[in-house]
Design brief:
The complex is a heterodimer of chains A (about 270) and B (about 375).
Chain A lengths: L1 H26 L3 H4 L14 H9 L2 H32 L5 H12 L3 H14 L6 H5 L6 H12 L3 H9 L4 H12 L1 H17 L2 H6 L8 H5 L11 H31 L6
Chain B lengths: L1 E10 L2 E11 L4 E5 L6 H9 L6 E6 L2 E2 L10 E4 L11 H13 L2 H4 L10 H19 L14 H13 L5 E5 L7 H18 L2 E6 L2 H7 L2 E6 L2 E6 L1 H6 L4 H6 L6 E6 L12 E3 L6 E6 L4 E17 L3 E8 L4 E7 L10 E6 L5 E4 L10 E3 L3
Parallel strand pairs in B: 3-8, 3-9, 6-7, 7-8
Antiparallel strand pairs in B: 1-2, 1-4, 4-5, 9-10, 11-13, 12-19, 13-18, 14-15, 14-17, 15-16
Helix pairs in contact in B: 2-4, 2-5, 4-5
Classes of the chains: A mainly alpha (about 270), B alpha+beta (about 375).
Chain lengths: ~270, ~375
């Protein structure tokens, strides 16, 4: 049984990894090798100039910095709002709590594209398009974050929070000094989801910004597509590699925490 | 001291506490004893400010604190699960209540706090106090550990230390020993009593274990289904239980209860040699503790069923001629007859408790010895 499942997993991994491999391979191929009739998996020589072009032809470094600013801003605000909300939903008793949690769950069902146009119009009226604000603010309240943290906090023993109240902690202090530090696995899992989604997001930056100085990495890669001069595939792939690498590195780094955060969803006593 | 005045608590429509009034005086070790579900933990939570009474008032040192939150009252609480903060070391766990009360918001901020004038001195004072408490509880070597690396007894000590580190007006303990093994429980019992004597503060100790309540406290409140069934010193509860339920709950060995109808002269055929004056023809419940019913040369005739040998003493299970089962206590060196053999049990009449057969309330009448 074991060799079979291993084989199946390897095949699956190969299918998933092939585009990545192809991307890396293309990013290192000289221009004349890219458009050939044959399929060569490996480049005949390593064309590092594609990477140089990627960084010089467009301000790729600027795009990466923008990506960090936007994803970081979104994540900080998401956690700032989701953690206290989740704590209140899990560990405080107030009228309408269940109904409110029901609304949070309902919010999970609404795709962003449904609200994108009203948000766009609102930002346009406020003359806030083409700002970092426009890239960050539509995502600061994450129902998924509230849901994930709530499940985590609900599994924590109530006595822990009661002890904190007796010890003189305010509810805000309990959230940030007790609940949040114990929710690290959930926070890591959420951070990976959030950063991946917003780092890769092309839809909203394409709508909300037109200023190249504000372009996030995927928005920036689009600048390599030039209808008149033709697509510059080598540097485009090089830029894609550069844009994807931080995500893969980040995920590998957080991998164990992520599975922990999703699998346990609670606190081991 | 803490006082409850007519405190009622309802969860939805279900009343859990029925107008409880009590006072825990300064320096007293008071136990709230009762079976599970009697409302003893709810009473403690109302004292702590973790729960609000549906009606009635709570006063702490004469000040009405009914609406005050737990953090506004200066009370300390030890929880059954210890509720230590898993992400903080032992030292940080003990220091947290002090830091929250003595340092300002700015001074508590990591990094920034050290730059505020005076914060360093305050931190040093907190550190000194933590070490002092740790030394008192024998935790000096564990200060850098996380709770996950502690044994049950050590966690218990840290929880006590966290309560002890500031000077609260009252200590509330919610079954703090129930997760420990039997030997450790007896040891911690003595340590907690010594600690209470040392601090001189009032302790309110919730337990379902009558041995803990009797051994540690100077005052015991027995709670039964949301009411205080009896309040008094451990000796009073044992010697003069106010109701049949209290008599059943208090005492290491379960009391024998005999439902009888007394004759015209106040006697019963079940326990010859006994007469109750002033209760002729009444239906009563006689309560006889096993330790007051011992094998003797003369007395009540019975047949031996089983002997539980416990070392210092033996629990003797017998059956009276009419089939009523009884438990008696014999010294450990007592030589029992063969099972089914006849024996006689002596009863001390002044040790027999009388309860109303209907209400279970204690009757004022007393039993006396008559010539059989």
């Amino acid at each position: 049984m074991r060799p079979f499942s291993l084989l199946a997993l390897l095949l699956g991994a190969a299918v998933v990894l092939l585009p990545f491999f192809w991307m890396v391979s293309l990013s290192l191929k000289p221009a004349d090798e890219i458009f050939t009739a044959r399929v060569d998996l490996l480049p005949s020589r390593l064309a590092w100039e594609n990477y140089a072009t990627a960084f010089t032809e467009v301000p790729l470094a600027r795009f990466l910095v923008n990506g960090v600013i936007v994803c970081g801003g979104i994540l900080v605000f998401q956690i700032m709002f989701a953690v206290p909300c989740a704590y209140a939903l899990a560990q405080r008793r107030f009228p309408g709590r269940t109904a409110l949690f029901g609304l949070v769950l309902a919010g999970l069902l609404v795709p962003f594209h449904v609200t994108a146009i009203p948000i766009f119009l609102g930002l346009a009226e406020l003359r806030l398009l083409n700002t970092y604000f426009a890239l960050i603010v539509p995502f600061v309240a994450s129902v998924f974050g509230i849901f994930l943290f709530r499940q985590f906090f609900a599994a924590m023993p109530t006595e822990l929070f009661e002890a904190a109240r007796v010890d003189g902690l305010s509810e805000t202090a309990i959230v940030w000094r007790i609940a949040f530090p114990l929710a690290w696995p959930a926070a890591t899992a959420f951070a990976v989801f959030s950063v991946t989604a917003h780092w890769n997001d092309l839809f909203w930056p394409l709508i909300a910004t037109s200023d190249p100085a504000l372009a996030t990495p995927p928005r920036g890669i689009v600048y390599f597509r030039d209808a008149e001069a033709g697509d510059d595939v080598g540097p485009l792939m090089a830029a894609s590699v550069v844009v994807t690498t931080p995500l893969i590195a980040g995920f590998l780094f957080a991998q164990r925490r992520v599975t922990q955060g999703i699998a346990t969803g609670g606190l081991k006593a | 001291m803490i006082e409850l005045d007519g405190v009622t608590r309802r969860f939805g429509a279900t009343p859990v506490l029925h107008g409880i009034s009590l006072a825990v005086p300064e320096g007293s070790f008071t136990s709230i004893l009762g079976p599970s579900g009697c409302g003893k933990s709810t009473t403690l939570r109302i004292m702590a400010g973790l729960d609000r009474p549906s009606a009635g008032r709570v006063r702490l040192n004469g000040v009405d604190v009914t609406e005050a939150t737990a953090s506004e009252r200066n009370v300390a609480m030890v929880f059954q699960s210890y509720a230590l903060y898993p992400h903080l070391t032992v030292a940080e766990n003990i220091a947290l209540p002090l830091a929250m009360r003595q340092l300002s918001r700015l001074e508590r901020l990591a990094g920034v706090g050290r730059l505020v004038p005076g914060a360093g001195a305050k931190r040093a004072a907190i550190g000194a106090r933590v070490r002092e408490v740790a030394a008192m509880l024998g935790l000096e070597d564990l200060l850098a550990r996380k709770p996950a690396a502690l044994s049950g007894g050590q966690k218990q000590r840290v929880a006590v230390g966290r309560a002890l580190v500031r000077d609260p007006s009252i200590f509330l303990l919610d079954e703090p020993l129930s997760n420990l093994d039997a030997r450790l429980r007896v040891q911690m019992r003595a340590e907690l009593a010594a600690l209470q004597a040392r601090t001189g503060r009032a302790f309110v100790y919730v337990t379902h274990d009558q041995a803990e309540a009797m051994a540690m406290s100077d005052h015991v409140l027995v709670m039964m289904s949301g009411r205080i069934a009896q309040a008094g010193a451990p000796r009073d509860l044992y010697a003069r239980p106010a109701t049949r339920e209290v008599a059943t709950f208090v005492g290491a060995h379960p009391i024998n209860l005999l439902h009888v109808t007394l004759g015209a002269s106040g006697t019963t055929a079940l326990l010859p040699g006994l007469r109750v004056t002033g209760a002729a023809n009444a239906r009563v419940t006689l309560g006889v503790r096993p330790e007051h019913l011992a094998p003797a040369a003369t007395g009540v005739a019975a047949r031996l069923e089983r002997v539980e040998y416990l070392g210092a003493e033996s629990v003797v299970h017998v059956r009276l001629d009419n089939g009523t089962p009884l438990r008696a206590l014999a010294p450990g060196d007592w030589a029992p007859p063969a099972p089914g053999g006849a024996l006689t049990l002596a009863v001390a009449p002044e040790r027999v408790h009388l309860f109303d057969a209907e209400t279970g309330a204690r009757l004022p009448a007393a039993a006396e010895r008559v010539a059989a």
